[in-house]
Give the backbone structure.
Amino acid sequence: MTALLVIGDVVTDIVALHGRPIAPQTDTAARIAVRPGGSAANTAAWAARAGAGDVRLLSRVGADSAEWHRAELLAAGVRPRLAVDGELATAVVICLVDGAAERTFVTDTGAAGRLGPDDWVPGLLEGVGRIHLSGYLLFTEPGRRLAALVIAAAVAARVPVSVDPASTGFIERLGVREFLAAAEGTALLLPNLAEARLLTGTDDSVAAAERLSASWGEAVVKLGPQGAVAARGGTVLAHVPAADGEAVDTTGAGDAFAGGFLAARLAGADLAEAAVAGCRFGAAAVGVIGGRPPR
Ligand SMILES: Nc1ncnc2c1ncn2[C@@H]1O[C@H](COP(=O)(O)OP(=O)(O)OP(=O)(O)O)[C@@H](O)[C@H]1O
Ligand SMILES: [Mg+2]
């Protein structure tokens, strides 16, 4: 039982680096790159980079770019199972990065928003040791139904499920209580500090990790350049400093952390060792542009 199954979003990222502020109603020069992204897809790619041997991804894309995404995932060592939507195009995120590296996202969920129970293939569970859900899955109604189905199957098969809450904005829109209900039955939560604060109502990272792990089993709160705090059953087991590295683009740091962490757990690492691996891959991700490991 060594395979990892990741479920959630595949996204086409359009990253525009504009040195000057956007000028309304006329042109603003920018360097624009089109990259494969999506939290679930990035996590799967980083897990493969971190040494996980059998990484599967269940997602939904549009016919416009299905072949490109499939090829990119295969090249990253991921086994993609991509449902192709008959109407909607692949999700697109336009990421506007200004001269101070501040980012603004414009998001079209596209086909990813329709990922649901009809896309589930029970055979995907065969040989799986862990399942990871992108939080974006829990922000759509079909996604929550798929998550409920997968969590029930995983609990029956005694396979632990992890969740990255992904977005304070979307959690607030859905409601904290509804989000927590949608994630019920999962065994590991991987929030960043803002998400941990929102979900617990406490500002302190240690208290938040303790509180989340008391109800979840395990929780690892990611702290950006401050590393991560890992807790189990209400007790903090490790506070891991961030790994060294130059920050170029923080896109995908959390996904890389999850990929490195989950690959380590599948290889037998304990919670603290896996958090160290997560920090190593998180730091690697901030050193490259885009959310995927470099080729
Ligand atoms: N500037 C940095 N230097 C070194 N490591 C970093 C830096 N930023 C992030 N990391 C590593 O990446 C991990 C995840 O980053 P972060 O806490 O920002 O998660 P996140 O907010 O979920 O990321 P994302 O923006 O991808 O959603 C951190 O726990 C840390 O180990
Ligand atoms: Mg994140």
Remarks:
- The mean pLDDT is 96.
- Residues 116 and 142 are 4 Å apart (CA to CA).
